[in-house]
Amino acid sequence: MKAIATRQQTGAALLISIIMLLIITVLALSSMRGSILQEQMTANQYDYQLAFQAAEAALRRGEQLRRTNAGFVLLPIGPTPPIDNWRNLRANFITVTMPTGHGLAAQPQVLTEELDFDSSNNTSRIRVTAIGFGARAETQVVLQSIVAL
């Protein structure tokens, strides 16, 4: 009988397969993390767009109501108000009711301020400021326009 030569195995195949499995796991986790980040960015962009559209709708509604003098207490003329005067006047904002079903955290708000009055042609410049909210209350968009009436 012939003796069969046996070699002692070192387990290299097991070690290589464990390393490959570890690399694949790291790649999969990295890919999942990237997908979750993209999903969060998309949700934030959607929330911003909701807030922007609500602010724009409130701004247009505020301009329309100001043209008809309906429902506004116009702030008095003084020295030209600073561009961020609205921050100090939050109590003077009125809420603009939006149709339901938009998923907004709060209804948009609008404020009008008279900047100046030209008595020669009987026109006023009115600054309209609107704040829109997204699905989360911390998502806010502020828009302003100046209207000559």
What does this structure look like?
The chain has one domain (12-148). β3 (123-133) and β4 form a beta hairpin. With 149 residues, the chain is of the alpha+beta class. Helices cover 38% and strands 21% of the residues. The N and C termini lie far apart (114 Å). It has one helix at residues 12-67; strands at residues 94-95, 109-118, 123-133, 140-148.
Topology:
Elements (H helix, E strand, L loop, with lengths): L11 H56 L26 E2 L13 E10 L4 E11 L6 E9 L1
Antiparallel strand pairs: 1-2, 2-3, 3-4
Number of strand segments: 4
Mean of residue pLDDT values: 78
What strand line-up does the widest sheet have? 1-2-3-4
What's the number of domains? Answer: 1
- Sequence of secondary-structure elements: HEEEE
Describe the largest sheet. Answer: 4 strands, antiparallel
Oligomer: single chain
- Count every helix, treating DSSP H or I runs of 4 or more residues as helices: 1
Shape: rod-shaped
Global structural class: alpha+beta
